[in-house]
Structure formats: structure tokens, C-alpha cells
Amino acid sequence: MASIQFKNLRKSYGDTEVVHGLTLDIADGEFIVIVGPSGCGKSTLLRMVAGLEEITSGELLIGGRVVNRLEPKDRDCAMVFQNYALYPHMTVFDNMAYGLKIRGVPKEEIEKRVAGAAKMLELEHLLERRPRQLSGGQRQRVAMGRAIVREPSAFLFDEPLSNLDAKLRVQTRLQIQQLHRRLRTTSLYVTHDQVEAMTLAHRMIVMNGGVAEQVGTPQEVYDK
Ligand code: ADP
Ligand code: ADP
């Protein structure tokens, strides 16, 4: 768990600025949902936090430390993608274990953490399967398991439910809510879906054209 701070964060592609100086303090354990129309800069913001996009100017702090220059793997954020991004040739166990292996976590610790996450996410009976042998909902649970085992400072969710059908979306959303209640990991969550925003967010960032137009609780945002 960690606080996250945006200090006048900007992103340009060439001459075009797509995030225009965003400043925000996110508390330890807070669940932030980022909404806004397509192209408003949501993914770019998330990817800057993850270290997948270079920050053009401004400062990004995680746990009080400026991380602008750190590689993704040193930022201690775990990202959950819309398309799951699992390794097709690896088993569920190996998919969840991979991020720990590359960071040199000892084998027993890896086994313990994967077992714990598998239990939380009801994946225990699927650990030897490959991703193609799983339903969409199961794949997304594996993607979340892979994030959880890292015990990161923050979770970054990029529209994690948009490839699921309506019923699985509800189930998986409830699971994300339960996980947050249990782990209290600071979370940034991008979505188009109002129900997801309403039910998950402590605070929402409403983006438009690279600007945070509104920041507030769902009630504050929807009452306006
Ligand atoms: P959102 O996630 O809200 O749909 P994005 O963050 O993906 O929006 O994109 C914000 C803006 O940045 C858009 O205008 C998009 O076209 C532009 N953009 C995104 N990635 C690149 C890139 N690699 N090169 C140039 N422009 C980009
Ligand atoms: P969904 O509609 O949720 O995507 P599917 O209809 O694909 O689910 O699968 C239903 C069940 O069958 C799931 O529990 C899944 O784990 C299992 N299953 C699907 N494909 C395979 C496979 N190739 N091998 C073993 N089990 C599978």
C-alpha cells in the first residue's frame, strides 16, 4: 500500500499534449476510478503510473518517492489489462508466479503467495491449466491473481471487465470489491461503466480532453 501523487503531470506525443498538467493526491488504500470519453487520456495516465509511457514533465510519487525515472518493474505497481495479457504457453500457476520469479522471490514464498491468491480467487483447481482452457472470467481472475501475488503498492486496472459478458462483469466486479476490502491496496481503475464507477470508487476522476474536469466521490460527481 502506498499513497500516489501527481504533480503537474504532463504527457505529449510529439507536439500534441494529451495530459495537461494533472495534480492530485491519492491516499494510501484509496480506490480511484478514472472515467471519461474515449481518447481523453485515461490509459495514458495509467500507463504513465505503470512506467509504460514516459512522463513528459511533472512528478509522479509513489509512497512519497519520485518514480519518474524508474523502470516498470521497480515501481511496485501491478497492472490488470482488459485483454488479460496472460502467457499462453504457461500454466495458471506459472503465469501467477512469473512476476515473482523475475524479481528473485524464493520458491517457497512464491508457492505460498500463489496458493493464497488462488484460494482468494477460487482458482485452486485450475493451476495446471493453460489460459486457452479457461473461460473469460477465469482468465481475468488469473490476471488479478498475478497482480495480487506481487503484493504491490498499487493496483492499476485498465477496463478489466470490458471483455466479459454481463453476468461475469457483475461477479468479477464484486470480487474486485471484496479484494479491496481485504487487501486495501491503493487502486487506480479505468472504466467506461457508470455502475463500476459508482460501486467501486472512493473518488472519481472525470477526465475530458486530457484535463481532470472533476474529482470527487461518486455522489459529488453525479449530483452535479
Ligand atoms: P483513453 O484511454 O481515454 O481512450 P488514451 O490515453 O488512449 O485515451 O489517448 C489519449 C490521446 O492520446 C488520444 O488522443 C490518443 O489518440 C493519443 N495517443 C495515445 N497513444 C498515442 C501514441 N502512442 N502516439 C500518439 N498519440 C497517442
Ligand atoms: P465462458 O462462457 O465463461 O467463457 P466457457 O463456456 O468457455 O466459459 O467454459 C465453460 C467451462 O468449461 C469453464 O469452467 C472452463 O473452465 C471450461 N473449459 C472451457 N474450455 C476448456 C478447455 N479447452 N479445457 C478444459 N476446460 C475448458
Brief sketch in words of this structure:
By secondary structure, the protein is α/β, with parallel strands linked by helices. The chain has seven helices and ten strands. 37% of the residues are buried.
Describe the structure in your own words.
The protein is an alpha/beta fold and 224 residues long. The chain contains seven helices and ten strands. The chain has helices at 42-50, 92-101, 107-120, 136-149, 166-183, 194-200, 218-223; strands at residues 4-13, 16-26, 31-35, 57-62, 65-66, 77-80, 154-158, 186-190, 203-208, 211-216. The protein has a six-stranded mixed β-sheet, sandwiched between helices. A four-stranded antiparallel β-sheet has the order 2-1-4-5, covered by helices on one side. A hairpin with a 2-residue loop joins strand 9 and strand 10. The two termini are 31 Å apart. The mean pLDDT is 95. The protein binds adenosine-5'-diphosphate (ADP) (2 copies). Residues 133-138 line the site of one adenosine-5'-diphosphate (ADP).
Characteristics of this structure?
224 residues, alpha/beta, 6-stranded mixed sheet, 4-stranded antiparallel sheet, 10 strands, globular, binds adenosine-5'-diphosphate, translocase
How far is it from the N-terminal to the C-terminal residue, by CA?
Answer: 31 Å
Read across the widest sheet, the strand sequence of neighbours is 6-7-8-3-9-10
| Radius of gyration of CA atoms, rounded to a whole number | 17 Å
Oligomer: single chain
The ligands found in this model are: adenosine-5'-diphosphate
Shape: globular
